[in-house]
């Protein structure tokens, strides 16, 4: 029987470590949804359930000093890159103990200390930002890379395609991870994307491949190749990671219930579950130990989030300017 | 004493800042050959790793500069056309500007956006003649509009060194201005500190950018009948409110000349703040572009949409006559 303590840390068997990340993200999202219902997390969230293998697999192929940019559906990326779940949950709850001191929330969670240059609430906006960071690394003589997540909806944004052009032209050390979860909000990929996602990369001479985004190990291996290319100075690579969004575009749908897919379709999509796929690769006892450890960790994260202080309204304009410049108040 | 042109002052400021700080780099269209002259000689001096000619891809390279800034660099972006700011408003107002607050102060985005040739160039028509500085002041992006070569040098140097995004409008109406300066005395000019170009006791004229020179001409025309103080805010956001208040303590009358469209132009904010908080003995007045102006092509129509010296003179006389 496996020693439960052997799977609690980050330096364990790679298959178990991947499972742990998937389980952590799954459990985090479930608890975050509960906190949305309890009105502890305001503004709702964009659940990442079903896509956990992408965050887990990609981040497993990165070094701590590499950076990522994330999306509105970003909790998985932030956690997989190494942000503290308790501080991430506290950020969702808008507390001073959150990653962003309660100034960012779900859609802007950032942790520069672990290379998370921020989740971004404008679809596709972070792709050129990641490219610029990657270029700066290369200019500094380092072999650090940047990885940018974006969805299938983003491939119709002009700025994303412009960024493909710049990144390829200047051979920046960038990994482009398109998470094709089947939907741009309510719109099916086939109804929003002319041509193909891989074809867009090909148009700019960017090597691209499609990966099973429900298989953490497949994602990790494909990312490792892309990262190696980037570190070697060979420029960007695009990975189209396909998965199925298990839950709503946004928790708003839990009450509004827009109908754009059937229950049968969702059930079929949920049948290919990254948690089960990776869970089947490790001993049952290891899996159980990880589940217990993660559950306890998340219990503590929720408690930490709920105990954190709400920011003082008098500090609403703190951090508006990096220089500390103070803006005029709205009433004087 | 050397005679320095406004454009050469911009060029000198960029070169000096690149010389003193390896992190400063330049992005833009045609910056290598320097079609605007603002970047003349920089490619040869600093090389292609620091002076990057970009594709015509404003949104991507503006976002790219934000990323480079997050990774520790201090990019300066040159835009040849002021209306390109509309194209990259998302990248500046919604991304670069918001990172500091949204991340709870985890990072900074020290990017400078330089517009060498903002406002009308006379007959460059509807999409090349805008002067959208009020838009950036409105969203809270640091915004400067230098009027003279020494201030162009000093404010651009400050913008590059600033840890926040700064938009530098260099009005086409000021690019030809020259002045005798001691080059060794050129120095950064702090943001939020106005400059009184001419002292007076009857009325304060707040003039933005190239209009400072028109205000000085009108003040000279009126000398003997009206004593006009010409106040150049130099930076619109932050704004030197205490400097303006001190001027109005002396004069009590306010006229603003502002090359913005009238509704929500910075002139409206200056007058509103003065009315709320400062000493006024006569109704304040402003001379601006018309509401919603789209500059027509024909030269006479273009000029008809810009503030004129005659309009300013009439506004000053009315302000004095009213109180």
From TrEMBL, chain A:
Record keywords: Oxidoreductase included?
A: yes
Which cofactor names does the annotation list? thiamine diphosphate
| UniProt KW Glycoprotein keyword | no
Q: Which UniProt keywords apply?
A: Oxidoreductase, Thiamine pyrophosphate
Name one molecular function that GO assigns to this entry. Answer: pyruvate dehydrogenase (acetyl-transferring) activity
User: What InterPro entries does UniProt report for this protein, alphabetically?
Assistant: DH_E1, PDH_E1_Alpha_Subunit, THDP-binding
Q: Which domain of life is it from?
A: Bacteria
Residue ranges occupied by any Dehydrogenase E1 component domain in the UniProt entry: 20-282
Give the GO biological process terms: pyruvate decarboxylation to acetyl-CoA
Per the UniProt record, the source organism is Kitasatospora indigofera
What's the protein called, per UniProt? Answer: Acetoin:2,6-dichlorophenolindophenol oxidoreductase subunit alpha
Under Pfam families, the record lists:
E1_dh
UniProtKB/TrEMBL annotation, chain B:
Q: Could you tell me one molecular function GO term of this UniProt entry?
A: oxidoreductase activity
Q: Which InterPro entries match?
A: THDP-binding, Transketo_C/PFOR_II, Transketolase-like_Pyr-bd, Transketolase_C
Pfam families, alphabetically? Transket_pyr, Transketolase_C
Q: Give the keywords, sorted.
A: Oxidoreductase, Pyruvate, Thiamine pyrophosphate
Query: Does the record bear DNA-binding in its keywords?
Result: no
Q: In terms of domain of life, where is this protein from?
A: Bacteria
Cofactors, names only:
thiamine diphosphate
Q: Which residues form the Transketolase-like pyrimidine-binding domain?
A: 4-177
Protein name from the UniProt record: Pyruvate dehydrogenase subunit beta
Query: What is the species listed in this Swiss-Prot or TrEMBL entry?
Result: Kitasatospora indigofera
Q: Which lineage is the organism of this entry classified under, starting from the top rank?
A: Bacteria, Bacillati, Actinomycetota, Actinomycetes, Kitasatosporales
Gene encoding this polypeptide? acoB
């Amino acid at each position: 029987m496996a020693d439960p303590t052997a799977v609690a840390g980050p330096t364990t068997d790679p298959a178990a470590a991947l499972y742990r990340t998937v389980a952590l993200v799954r459990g985090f999202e479930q608890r975050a949804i509960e906190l949305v219902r309890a009105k502890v997390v305001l503004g709702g969230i964009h659940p990442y359930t079903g896509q956990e293998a992408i965050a887990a697999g990609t981040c497993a192929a990165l070094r701590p000093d590499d950076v990522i940019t994330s999306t509105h559906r970003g909790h998985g990326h932030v956690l997989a890159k190494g942000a503290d779940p308790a501080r991430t949950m506290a950020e969702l709850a808008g507390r001073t103990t959150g990653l962003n001191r309660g100034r960012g929330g779900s859609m802007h969670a950032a942790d520069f200390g672990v290379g998370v240059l921020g989740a971004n609430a404008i679809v596709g906006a972070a792709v050129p930002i990641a490219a610029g960071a990657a270029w700066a690394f290369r200019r500094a003589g380092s072999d650090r890379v940047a990885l940018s997540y974006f969805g299938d909806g983003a491939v119709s944004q002009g700025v994303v395609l412009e960024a493909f052009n710049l990144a390829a032209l200047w051979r920046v050390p960038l990994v482009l991870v398109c998470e094709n979860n089947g939907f741009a909000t309510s719109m099916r990929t086939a109804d929003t994307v002319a041509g193909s996602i891989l074809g867009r990369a090909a148009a700019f001479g960017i090597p691209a491949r499609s990966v099973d985004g429900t298989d953490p190990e497949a994602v990790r291996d494909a990312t490792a190749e892309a990262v190696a290319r980037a570190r070697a100075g060979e420029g960007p690579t695009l990975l189209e990671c396909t998965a199925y969004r298990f839950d709503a575009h946004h928790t708003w749908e839990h009450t509004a219930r827009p109908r754009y897919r059937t229950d049968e379709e969702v059930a079929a999509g949920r049948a290919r579950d990254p948690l089960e796929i990776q869970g089947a690769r490790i001993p049952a006892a290891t899996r159980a130990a990880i589940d217990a450890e993660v559950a306890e960790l998340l219990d503590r994260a929720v408690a930490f989030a709920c105990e954190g202080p709400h920011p003082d309204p008098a500090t609403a304009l703190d951090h508006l300017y990096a220089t500390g410049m103070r803006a005029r108040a709205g009433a004087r | 004493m050397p005679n320095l042109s406004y454009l050469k002052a911009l060029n000198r400021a960029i070169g000096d800042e690149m010389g003193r700080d390896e992190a400063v780099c330049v992005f833009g269209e045609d910056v290598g050959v320097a079609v605007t002259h603002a970047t003349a000689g920089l490619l040869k001096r600093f090389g292609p790793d620091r002076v990057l000619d970009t594709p015509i891809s404003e949104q991507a390279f503006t976002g790219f500069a934000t990323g480079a800034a997050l990774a520790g660099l201090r990019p300066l972006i040159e835009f040849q056309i002021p209306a390109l700011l509309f194209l990259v408003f998302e990248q500046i107002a919604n991304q670069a500007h918001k990172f500091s607050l949204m991340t709870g102060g985890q990072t900074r985005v020290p990017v400078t956006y330089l517009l060498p040739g903002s406002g009308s160039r006379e007959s460059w028509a509807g999409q090349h003649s805008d002067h959208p500085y009020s838009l950036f002041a409105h969203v809270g992006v640091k915004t400067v509009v230098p009027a003279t070569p020494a201030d162009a040098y000093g404010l651009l140097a400050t913008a590059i060194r600033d840890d926040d995004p700064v938009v530098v409008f260099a009005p086409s109406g000021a690019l030809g201005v020259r002045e005798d300066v001691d080059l060794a005395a050129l120095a950064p000019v702090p943001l939020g500190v106005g400059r009184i170009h001419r002292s007076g006791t009857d009325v304060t004229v707040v003039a933005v950018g190239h209009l400072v020179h028109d205000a000085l001409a009108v003040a000279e025309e009126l000398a003997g009948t009206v004593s006009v103080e010409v106040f150049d805010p130099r930076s619109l956001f932050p704004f030197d409110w205490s400097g303006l208040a001190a001027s109005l303590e002396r004069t009590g009358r306010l006229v603003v000349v502002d090359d913005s469209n009238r509704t929500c132009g910075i002139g409206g904010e200056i007058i509103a703040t003065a009315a709320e908080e400062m000493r006024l003995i006569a109704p304040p007045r402003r001379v601006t572009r018309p509401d919603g102006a789209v500059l027509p092509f024909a030269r006479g129509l273009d000029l008809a949409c810009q503030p004129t010296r005659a309009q300013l003179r009439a506004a000053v006389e009315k302000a004095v006559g009213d109180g």
